[in-house]
Design goal:
This protein is of the alpha/beta class and 378 residues long. The longest helix has 17 residues. Helix 1 packs parallel to helix 4. The chain is globular and about 65 Å long. The chain is 20% helix and 34% strand. The chain is built from seven helices and 22 strands. Bound molecules: flavin-adenine dinucleotide. The site of flavin-adenine dinucleotide has 38 residues, from helix 1, strand 11, strand 15 and strand 20.
């Protein structure tokens, strides 16, 4: 087997949007960066399989901190990613009459505190007001994960300070003086990289990679999650999110023309309470998917059966009879959350420096548009 050694100013592990953004940010400062990704291509997990909601805050009436952070970065993210954002669709938020953690008065107070648009709609032919306590026309956009993938992949591959290593299997880590020595394999090749700085941007694998570098694990839970894709003649280019509890959401998946469908009750198929994801579908015969380096769920033959029809049945109740949806296909991935946010449903992005020399940062991302938090820390 071939073996080669290289030295870099920084090694970023994880090729989702956070790893790509971190690599670009460091490279633009003049640093030579290695970007290590476990899979054959970038952006195959949470950065691709998500609801594509460019959060404006509406979604977090129980976490003013997350709501405020969404708004803090929304404007810049939108400005810098205009070509990949779908602006022109009608977005509605609604409150279920039964079992919601919020009500119309509280939701209106919350939106007014955040200064975000929320216009009450008294009547609308597409919705079923027997189930909805209140309906609001809001302003929320959708980013396009497929276009973001093309954009960020092109950027990192084109940058002459960044070397991308896909299919990288981390093997061993050691400290020598002020540097990390990181051994990994890539198909038939073995590499050792030397670097004074490592950035862990592996999301579901954050705790495992922290542990490999001798740093504290994050306290996480993990869920195998499904995003279903649907369309509808009557409800095209529109979105509805029902708040706040075990409800669901339908909204444009960026500019793809499809609507993403998810539901708090049915999107999450399996849950793992350990810091690294442990699911019964991970089997020893499949080294491509382990608790320390999970695989791609969408293409896995052991992925859960789709809950799309249950989600559709649940969401259908909020619409009048003239609205019908067709189901196309689903994506699956692991969604990871900080245990600390179990109660308030917040999705903060946490970036921590876990070691001074050699340096080690862990980026744990709550939302796509919080990539700019990287600049505050790195
Ligand atoms: C179902 C779901 C819905 C969501 N909805 C929204 C939404 O509407 N709006 C929003 O803003 N956010 C949403 N999010 C959150 C958002 O998608 C994530 O916060 C964000 O994509 C995380 O980006 P990332 O780059 O950290 O992770 P990822 O995109 O998962 O990238 C991590 C990368 O690390 C790689 N990796 C893992 N282990 C290793 C290893 N050992 N060596 C090398 N590479 C490794 C993985 O293969 C992967 O490519 C959602 C997330 C999910 C799962």
């Amino acid at each position: 087997m071939q073996h080669s050694s290289h030295s870099f100013d920084a090694v970023v592990i994880g090729g989702g949007i956070f790893g790509c953004y971190a690599a670009l940010y460091l490279a633009r400062k003049g640093m030579r960066v290695a970007l290590l990704e476990k899979e054959a291509r970038l952006f195959q997990k949470a950065s691709l399989v998500n609801q594509a909601r460019l959060h404006s805050g509406y979604h977090y009436p129980r976490s003013l901190a997350t709501a405020a952070l969404s708004d803090e970065h929304k404007e810049r993210f939108t400005r810098e990613h205009r070509a990949f954002v779908h602006f022109s669709f009608e977005k509605y938020y609604a409150i279920d009459r039964f079992g919601s953690f919020t009500d119309a008065a509280q939701f209106e107070r919350f939106c007014s505190k955040l200064g975000i648009r929320c216009d009450r709609v008294a009547e609308h032919p597409l919705f079923n007001f027997d189930r909805l306590e209140a309906l609001y026309r809001t302003e929320e956009y959708s980013f396009d994960p497929l276009l973001l993938r093309e954009y960020y992949s092109a950027q990192v591959y084109a940058h002459d300070h960044i070397e991308v290593f896909c299919q990288a299997q981390l093997r061993e880590v050691a400290v020598q003086g002020k540097c990390w020595q990181i051994a990994f394999s890539q198909q038939e090749k073995e590499y050792t990289l030397e670097s004074p700085l490592v950035v862990n941007a592996t999301y579901a694998a954050s705790s495992a990679v922290n542990a490999l570098f001798g740093c504290a694990e994050l306290q996480l839970t993990h869920e195998i999650s499904e995003i279903a894709f649907i369309n509808s003649k009557a409800f095209s280019n529109k979105g509805l999110t029902v708040m706040d509890g075990p409800f669901g959401s339908i909204m444009p998946y960026g500019k793809s023309g499809l609507l993403s469908l998810s539901s708090v009750a049915y999107t999450h198929h399996k849950i793992s309470y350990q810091n690294t994801p442990h699911f019964d579908c991970m089997i020893p015969e499949d080294p491509a998917c382990t608790p320390s380096a999970p695989g791609i769920c969408t293409t896995c033959e052991r992925r859960p059966h789709s809950n799309a029809y249950k989600m559709l049945q649940q969401m259908q109740q909020y619409f009048s009879d003239e609205v019908r949806f067709d189901y196309w296909f689903s994506y699956f991935t692991i969604k990871s959350k900080l245990k600390a946010n179990y109660i308030d449903d917040g999705r903060p992005t946490e970036i921590s420096r876990l070691r001074e020399t050699p340096g080690f940062f862990c980026l744990f991302a709550g939302k796509i548009n919080s990539i700019y938090e990287i600049e505050k820390m790195l």
